[in-house]
Amino acid sequence: MTVHEGTCHCGAISLQLRDQPTGVSECNCSICRRIAGLWHYCRPEVVTITGDAIGYSHGDRTLTTWHCGVCGCTTHWTAIDPAYRKMGVNLRMFDHALWQGLPRTLVDGASF
């Protein structure tokens, strides 16, 4: 199994992704537009995150978006409902070779 390693800009948050992205999603909701997230959706059990991320819940309060308290990079989001078995990992925290050539899906989060 391939393990992809990523970090925020300063390295205080580390991510290990035990999954192979085959595409990425770009959302146009108010927060994703501002943070320029490039999302890989996966099960939480294939991701290991170390470091002290700071959470921010916005809008309908269904997700928590996590960022580094030192450099401010948004690393991932998690569902507030623990029964929801999906999370988003910001692939911009990984080497661009992982995500550069992947097909992109535009998500219209602004319309919700």
Note down, in words, how this protein is organized:
By secondary structure, the protein is mainly β. It has a single domain (4-111), classed as Metal Binding Protein, Guanine Nucleotide Exchange Factor, Chain A. 9% of the residues lie in helices and 40% in strands. The protein contains 2 helices and 10 strands, in the order E-E-E-H-E-E-E-E-E-E-H-E. The protein has helices spanning 30-35, 96-99; strands at residues 4-7, 14-17, 24-27, 39-42, 47-50, 53-57, 63-68, 74-79, 87-90, 104-107. The strands form 3 sheets. Strands 4-9-8-7-6 form a 5-stranded antiparallel beta sheet, with no helix packed on it. Strands 1-2-5 form a 3-stranded antiparallel beta sheet, with no helix packed on it. The model has no long low-confidence stretch (mean pLDDT 95).
Quick structural overview:
With 112 residues, this protein is mainly beta. It has helices at 30-35, 96-99, and strands spanning 4-7, 14-17, 24-27, 39-42, 47-50, 53-57, 63-68, 74-79, 87-90, 104-107. The model has no long low-confidence stretch (mean pLDDT 95).
